[in-house]
Write a structure and sequence with these properties.
Helix content is 37%, strand content 17%. By secondary structure, the protein is of the alpha+beta class.
Length: 451
């Protein structure tokens, strides 16, 4: 049976006639209906339209056409991407009465043009404001590896659906870590592309100067093809890994890690021949600047609707948006000035390194009934702080690939691979080498939870 995590293998089966697109789609919908009840990654299934699209794919193949590299592959979208004919809620009842989208989001349209079929919308933190996918309107998304634990957020439904084997490919967004955090906690591949390299049209915004859209996938090759389709063309050829200069981020990025995570990253560094450790200055201020910019831009975006419908928001989201809208303009100006300075410090590291590595989260997924992580010896809110290692890096607009670490013997842990803008090819080259060495790769579910 074809690996349910492998988008390219599914597409090959469909193109070569071993399976029909309709049979794949029917099996996908059935699996979601039965198995997602314990995970809550899906908010809506686009059943009839998805089957109709699968029928069109099968007719094209019968006529001798090639529908594309993702022929018949089912995919899900974080519920902030427009899908023509569907209401985009961005995880909130506030938008539930909005008119249906008239067009697909740009990346959804590109994936469909490559043969992929949207089959479901996926759960998220309301308006993408959080790291937990604990949604007051649609419920909490649970981690497929341990349903008593968080999946991470805000793209938690997207990561969990891939981790559970329900969908081989999903879409998410990343403002401060909303792809990298859940990919890490759920043990799947995720990519935050270079800021501006993938179109955001048709994706409900959060903080426009930080928002990026990107894919999750069950395999690295699937992630690469999805990214290339979304970006509108193939990457440049992958560089030789032996030619890549790799360094390890220390300081802020070396503190607060669990012992297991630190050991796994040590193993990666040792495999690469021992890595120089480099540090960024003022990382705490960078994280604070990211908080301020996100709050101000999100609050300003929502302020007109908050004035009319504040009580319909999740109280936790509402309060943070209102606080952001009330920030003084001078504070935001200072945050952006600092951002420009910090971006220069980050880019300076790439004069002597091609790829940086850093942890994605401090450790494994926190329990739902105790949603905290330990920072500087104190328990703090997971919903607000799971982005400890991702938020500062968001300021620089860099491409970052979240690679699941393997061999840790427990719940998933993630590694950020970081490159200069436009250097996604270096990330995929290094990730491929680490996967070949058995250091990174999709983390299988416990035997009791396999399909």
């Amino acid at each position: 049976m074809t690996d349910p995590f492998d988008a390219l293998a599914i597409a090959a089966d469909i193109r070569e006639g071993r399976r029909s697109a309709v049979s794949v789609m029917s099996a996908t919908i059935a699996a979601i209906e039965v198995r997602d009840t314990s995970i809550n990654s899906v908010t809506r299934i686009f059943g009839p339209r998805a089957v109709a699209e699968a029928e069109r794919i099968d007719r094209r193949l019968a006529a001798g056409d090639d529908p594309g590299p993702l022929a018949g592959v089912p995919f899900g979208v974080k519920d902030l991407f427009d899908v023509a004919g569907e209401v985009t809620t961005a995880g909130s009842v506030v938008l539930r009465e909005s008119p249906p989208a008239t067009h697909d989001a740009a990346v959804v349209a590109r994936l469909r043009a490559a043969g992929a079929i949207p089959v479901a919308s996926l759960n998220m933190d309301e308006f993408a404001y959080g790291f937990a996918t604990d949604n007051a309107h649609y419920g909490i998304t649970r981690n497929p590896h341990d349903t008593a634990r968080l999946a991470g957020g805000s793209s938690g439904g997207s990561a969990a659906a891939v981790a559970a084997g329900l969908l081989p490919l999903t879409l998410g967004s990343d403002t401060n870590g909303s792809i990298r955090v859940p990919a890490s906690l759920c043990g799947v591949w995720g990519l935050k592309p270079t800021f501006g390299s993938v179109p955001r049209e048709g994706a409900y915004p959060f903080a426009a100067s930080l928002d990026v859209v990107g894919p999750f996938a069950g395999t690295l090759d699937g992630l690469r093809v999805a990214y290339e389709v979304m970006a509108g063309g193939p990457m440049a050829g992958l560089p030789a890994v032996a030619d890549l200069r790799v360094a390890r981020l220390g300081g802020w990025f070396g503190a607060n890690m669990s012992d297991t995570l630190a050991g796994a990253i040590d193993a990666v560094a040792a495999h690469l021949g021992g890595l120089e450790t480099v540090e960024l200055p003022e990382v705490a201020r960078a994280r604070a600047a990211s908080f301020l910019i996100t709050a101000a831009e999100g609050g300003t975006l929502h302020l007109p609707r908050l004035r009319r419908h504040a009580l319909r928001y999740d109280p936790a989201t509402r309060d943070r948006l209102i606080a952001g809208a009330l920030l003084p303009a001078a504070t935001l100006v200072q945050a952006h000035r600092f951002r420009n300075w910090f971006r220069a410090q980050v880019h300076a590291l790439f004069r002597s390194a091609d790829v940086l590595i850093a942890p994605a989260t401090v450790g494994e997924a926190p329990p739902i009934d105790q949603p905290t992580i330990m920072v500087d010896g104190q328990p703090v809110s997971a919903r607000a702080n799971l982005g400890l290692y991702t938020q500062p890096l968001s300021l620089a607009g860099l491409p970052i690939l979240s690679a699941p670490l393997v061999g840790t013997g427990g719940l998933p842990l993630g590694l950020q691979l970081i490159a200069a803008p436009g250097r996604e090819a270096a990330l995929f080259a290094l990730a491929g080498a680490l996967a070949q060495a058995g250091l990174v790769g999709r983390v299988p579910l416990p035997a009791s939870k396999e399909r």
